[in-house]
Specification:
Layout: H1 2-28, H2 37-63, E1 79-81, H3 96-108, E2 120-128, E3 133-136, E4 147-159, E5 168-171, E6 182-193, E7 199-204, E8 206-207, E9 210-217, E10 222-230, E11 233-235, E12 238-240, E13 257-264, E14 267-269, E15 272-275, E16 278-282, E17 287-290, E18 293-294, E19 304-308, E20 316-319, E21 322-324, E22 328-331, E23 334-339, E24 342-344, E25 349-352, E26 357-364, E27 367-369, E28 378-381, E29 389-396, E30 399-401, E31 409-424, E32 437-444, E33 452-458, E34 461-479
Parallel strand pairs: 1-2, 2-4, 3-4, 4-6, 5-7, 6-8, 6-9, 7-10, 9-11, 9-12, 10-13, 11-14, 12-15, 13-16, 14-17, 15-18, 16-19, 17-20, 18-21, 19-22, 20-23, 21-24, 22-25, 23-26, 24-27, 25-28, 26-29, 27-30
Antiparallel strand pairs: 31-34, 32-34, 33-34
Helix pairs in contact: 1-2
Signal peptide: 1-30
Keywords: Signal
Protein name: Rhamnogalacturonase A/B/Epimerase-like pectate lyase domain-containing protein
Length: 486
């Protein structure tokens, strides 16, 4: 309301000044008549009043806060521009101390209630990098834990040549004994260059952290490391040890891990990982990966797109991802869903036995495209021992081109004149010598109606026999079901 009144007063003053200037010009050039006597005295008083009002409005406009701009270098409430603390946006000078001073001021601001118990709500405080590129020689850390609802955004950080090689550009670690260090910390619109000295962002024991529209490069350990805590959301971001767009001549030497999820209930959505030995390492439960494009390092060079390293308790969903010449490895997977993904360049899925358990695995509705070398789309790594406990594994309805389909559900047929028909599923079924369910039909020609039965199921083959010789076709569907130890 005050702003509207100020604008109306300014508009009135401007119009009045125009009128006053016109009257003055008219008086100077004689267009305005001169009066004598009583009328002349009134005219004189009006001109004096006009001049007085004009002077007051000019003073008022000069002092008006609407006309005055913000003072440079003074932070707005809850917004902390880092150049106000002496940070060098050109990247020539070390800005570590200046950036940490801004972070310290942000967390020392008065809070408005709490988030989760023990976390003070800073009300959306923002540490603005103002589009600058800042060199830092030490990890950026908040001076104390126990705060939330704060954002660092809008610029670039790069590690100096003496940055510690075991450090992270942004580090949310703390000595706090509380269950969580921070809550609702947001990193947005950042480019992080680790300069081949350590990692990008370290998030331990934090709750509801958001990484949005970030570009993280030149890491040697992890681009992002999430340790313990819950519900870190990584969205719309790009990660790579080397900046490339595929076909890099040094690809076989890529190292490091782009995203390392060592906590529960995290989500990675719409992310591109373009160089690293491992795209995403998962060792926590109940994580979801959606819409991620992996071309970090080809399987043929020893790379892995997704490595699920939580034997016996995977609880991971991989949906709508693009596995570009790099595949998925799952150790003793229990509750794993891989669906609607695209595997290009002979990329495949490996189920790796650690304790011989695979349970509750769905690999369905994916597309696999290869080079025609006959590589299986799903493979078993039993180098540490065979799978002894198998249950609820469904691998089916995958679209395969230039590779060999593998499945736990298969359909086949046999045709001939005789008393026995054999349908061999060993080339399609994933697990050896494991068929639990069989459904078949026999269609005889010539109107005959022989007696027939299922006679043998072994070595992933099905044998159907009749009591008399007949010309017939046998159609069979099988499923690999449960296998228990012993």
């Amino acid at each position: 309301m005050m702003a509207n009144m100020a604008r109306r007063r300014s508009a009135f003053a401007f119009a009045f000044m125009r009128l006053a200037s016109c009257l003055m010009v008219s008086s100077v050039y004689g267009d305005y008549p001169h009066f004598s006597g009583r009328l002349g005295d009134q005219t004189q008083k009006f001109q004096e009043l006009k001049a007085s009002v004009f002077r007051r409005d000019m003073v008022s406009l000069a002092a008006s806060p609407v006309a005055a701009g913000p003072q440079p270098g003074s932070p707005s409430p809850r917004v902390y521009p880092v150049t106000s603390y002496g940070a060098d946006p050109t990247g020539d000078k070390d800005s570590t101390d200046a950036l940490m001073a801004a972070m310290a001021d942000a967390v020392q601001a008065s809070g408005e209630g709490v988030l989760i118990e023990g976390i003070t709500n800073l009300g959306g405080a923002r540490i603005s990098l103002e589009g600058g590129n800042y060199k830092i020689s030490r990890p950026l850390r908040f001076p104390s834990a126990g705060v939330g609802n704060v954002m660092i955004h809008g610029g670039a950080l790069h590690a100096s040549d003496d940055f510690p090689t075991d450090g992270y550009l942004i580090d949310l670690s703390s000595n706090s004994s509380s269950p969580y260090n921070f809550e609702f910390i947001t990193f947005r619109d950042l480019m992080l260059d680790s300069n081949y000295r350590g990692g990008g962002i370290f998030i331990p024991k934090s709750l509801r952290t958001s990484i949005d529209n970030c570009y993280i490069a030149h890491f040697t350990t992890n681009g992002i490391l999430v340790q313990d805590g819950h519900e870190t959301m990584i969205r719309n971001s790009f990660l790579g040890q080397h900046i490339t767009a595929g076909g890099d001549p040094g690809e076989r030497n890529f190292s490091g891990t782009a995203i390392n999820l060592m906590g529960n209930d995290n989500a990675v959505t719409d992310v591109v990982i373009f160089s690293a030995a491992i795209g995403i390492m998962v060792s926590g439960q109940a994580n979801v990966l959606t819409g991620v494009h992996f071309y970090n390092k080809a399987t043929g060079f020893g790379g892995t797109g997704i490595y699920l390293k939580l034997p016996g308790n995977t609880q991971t969903r991989i949906l709508n991802c693009y596995m570009d010449y790099t595949g998925i490895v799952a150790e003793d997977p229990v509750q794993l869903d891989i669906s609607n993904c695209f595997f290009l360049g002979d990329a495949y899925v490996v189920l790796k036995s650690i304790n011989g358990v695979v349970n509750g695995v769905n690999i369905r509705n994916n597309m696999f495209t290869g080079s025609g070398k006959g590589i299986d789309i799903v493979q078993l790594d039993q180098s540490s021992g065979p799978f002894k406990e198998i249950d609820q594994v469904v691998i089916d309805a995958n679209n395969v081109n230039g590779m060999t389909a593998r499945s736990t559900i298969a359909r086949g047929s046999a045709k001939g004149n005789g008393t026995s028909w054999t349908v061999d599923f060993s080339s399609i079924l994933l697990f050896s010598d494991l068929i639990n369910y069989v459904q078949y039909s026999l269609s005889a020609s010539g109107g005959s109606f022989p007696k027939h039965s299922l006679r043998n199921v072994s070595n992933n083959s099905v044998v159907v026999e009749s009591d008399v010789a007949v010309s017939a076709s046998v159609f069979v569907m099988v499923e690999q079901g449960k296998k228990l130890p012993g």
